[in-house]
Amino acid sequence: MRILVCIKQVPDSEGFITINESNGWIDFEGSYRMNRFDEFALEEALRIGEKMPVDSIDALSVGLPRAESTIRKALEMGASRGIHIITEESSDMSAFETASLIASFAREERYDLILAGVMAEDDMQSQVGPMIAEMLGYPSASSVIYEEIDPERRTLFAEREIEAGKRECLEMKLPVLLTIQSGINRPRYPALSNVLRARNQEITTIPSQSLQKPVKRERMVALRYPEALSKGIVLEGNEGEKAGSLLQILHEKSII
Amino acid sequence: MYFNETHIAFRDSIKRFIDKEINPHMDEWEETVAPLHDLFKKMGDLGFLGVRYDPKYGGQGLDYWFETVLLEEIGHIHGMGVATAIAVQTNMATPAIAAFGSEYLKETYLMGAIAGDMVAAIAVTEPDAGSDVFAIKTRAVKEGDHYVLNGSKTYITNGTQADFLTLLARTSDDKGYHSFGLFVVPTDLRGFHVNKKLDKLGLRSSDTAELFFDNVKVPAKNLIGDEREGFIYQMQQFQHERFAILPGTHVAIRDMVDMTVDYLRQRVVFGKPLITKQVLRHRLADYLMKNECLKQLTYHIVRMKMEGLDVTREISMGKLYAGQLISEVASGCLQMFGGIGFMTETLISRYFRDARIMSIGAGADEVMSEIIARVEGF
Ligand SMILES: Cc1cc2nc3c(=O)[nH]c(=O)nc-3n(C[C@H](O)[C@H](O)[C@H](O)COP(=O)(O)OP(=O)(O)OC[C@H]3O[C@@H](n4cnc5c(N)ncnc54)[C@H](O)[C@@H]3O)c2cc1C
To answer: pLDDT tens, A22-52?
Structure first.
């Protein structure tokens, strides 16, 4: 059994993002970390590895050189191999391009199972996983909240979350691609022995140019802030006047 | 300068663990005390409890710098009770087993403590003997293949939850220091009683107990090393214990100053944020200056330990200074918070209560001064 987990480095939500008008992309002040949904995917792979013999759990990221730190985090959590498809441009990579690069790598590797997060917290497209499945011709399920593999029959049973907390149950023949929903497990903290191992471990680097070049199908024309929908009002006057105008507003809006 | 990328990665993983698994529970644990079996199992699985110990027994086999990283990070815990419980497990009750214990003791108790399967406690202090360790009265008398233990111990951290105690007892009436034995005493033996959980000013997330031994038959194989050398082993173990206090103290002091600065920036008094008051700014700067001295002495001690030098003098100075400084800063920071600092809901009030023990436990300030004077030859 060989497992691939797709992990993305995303800006930490505690950082500060602004649109850079001059280069049409963003400026980010803050640190980067692993997409939380991918942490669930990686944890699920590690748990499979604890339940049955697994030859390798590879963690792969497509991204700038800085994504290396996120791949190391995956090794610290327990992934057996780190793979970095290094891209250069910092502006937008479409889901199609990312999926093409991963599929082009994964095709040769013949993984039995590919896991990805249900979406990336930053782009929120939920496209990369299903696209890879399509490119490789794997059956797939998205938003998976439970999975179980039968190694004898080489089948995978999955439950996916649907409306109102109900679950849809599927069975698929391996190889399979799943996108993992949050809450399926509790991602572990890196054990000290893995932290030490991860420091010295070689990460396989692949320049994106060396893989099959994806054709860009969508072009981003602009990034925009949403228009402010409602404005705050600062009431003027002394306390009595302010209370009066507040009362009037509340009446106008039929709140009281 | 002292820490490389691997140390930093280790630091991050402990930090994450503390932020998610410890700090969110601290308010509750201050009421109920921390559930150590559950907590230590999680920490043991991650390799946090045996940083320096031999991989043969489940440890990581790393050096004092890695240990320092762990001890620094537990200083970020919101209250010193849990940090104390952890340090007892890693640095106070187990170093003598690792250094002088038999293969049996290491495979059973050291391994259990490193894995987090067993909770450890160190039992030295007695109702009539604290600073004067020599005055302890608990006795272990050899009878065949076991020792019969009688006596009591008090103020024992982790005492109500411990699976074993590393315990000092008198083994002979001879004068001099060669009349004590250090034992590993399992707490499931007949005749062992936890008299009560003690109610304390601070460290409320840590349990502290009074223990009682009524003809407890301790297997002879549970003796650590030589039955006459326990006092000497314990004096060496005290060095690990006292050192363990230093890294977390300079970190906790920094956290106190940081939380005070945050508060002073927001608190407007006489029309201006309090942080603009020179008298307060300077006092905080003084705290940081002193804390830097404590931190540098701590790192100096680590360097000396790495060189295998005797650090009794430096550790005694560090422990003395740490105890004095943390109380000074906790009290001074609480002062700057004003009335709200006196409220239980404010973290600084917990630090203020917890800080006080640092000048008493693990050897009181005066005991440290006495050691320094003696080492200096007067
Ligand atoms: C919360 C807590 C946790 C503890 N955990 C443990 C534990 O896990 N295991 C354990 O064995 N013990 C533990 N102790 C005990 C602790 O180590 C002792 O309280 C400490 O050593 C002081 O001993 P004592 O209380 O008997 O004070 P005493 O020895 O009675 O001393 C009282 C005071 O006298 C002064 N004094 C003492 N000696 C001298 C001197 N030579 N010259 C001048 N003045 C002096 C000091 O100011 C001292 O504080 C703990 C204590 C507390 C409060």
So the answer is: 878 889 999 999 999 999 999 999 999 999 9
CA distances to B273, B274, B333, B335 from B270, in Å: 8, 9, 19, 17
> Which residues of B are the active-site residues?
241
The domain boundary, picked from B202, B228, B254, lies at: B228
Q: Quote the CA–CA distance of B90 and B94 in Å, as a whole number.
A: 6
| Chain A residue nearest residue B16, CA to CA | A189
Write out the CATH class of domain A2-210.
alpha beta
Same domain, B200 and B326: no
Residue B247: C-alpha distances to residues B8, B90, B165 (Å): 15, 14, 25
Q: In angstroms, rounded to a whole number, what is the distance separating the alpha carbons of residues B218 and B204?
A: 31
- Same domain as B282, residue B223: no
Give the domain-ending residue among B93, B119, B145.
B119
CA of B133 to the centre of ligand 1 (A): 10
Report domain extents, chain A: 2-210
* Contact (Cβ atoms closer than 8 angstroms) between residue A217 and residue A100: no
Name the residue at shortest CA distance from atom 7 of ligand 1: B156
Q: Do residues B163 and B192 share a domain?
A: yes
Minimal C-alpha gap between B20 and chain A (Å): 10
For the stretch B20-68, pLDDT in tens is 999 999 999 999 999 999 999 999 999 999 999 999 999 999 999 999 9
What CATH number should be reported for the domain holding residue B102? 1.10.540.10
Total number of domains in chain B: 3
pLDDT, residue A91, reads 62
Of B9, B20, B46, the CB nearest to A199: B9
Length of chain A: 256
CA distance B261 to chain A (A): 21
CA-nearest of B155, B224, B220 to B194 is B155
Q: Which residues contact B339 (CB under 8 A, 6 or more apart)?
A: none
B294 shares a domain with B254: yes
Q: Do A199 and B5 touch (CB under 8 A)?
A: yes
Same domain assignment for residues B187 and B103: no
Q: How far is the CA of B319 from the centre of ligand 1 (A)?
A: 14
- CATH number of the domain bearing residue B320: 1.20.140.10
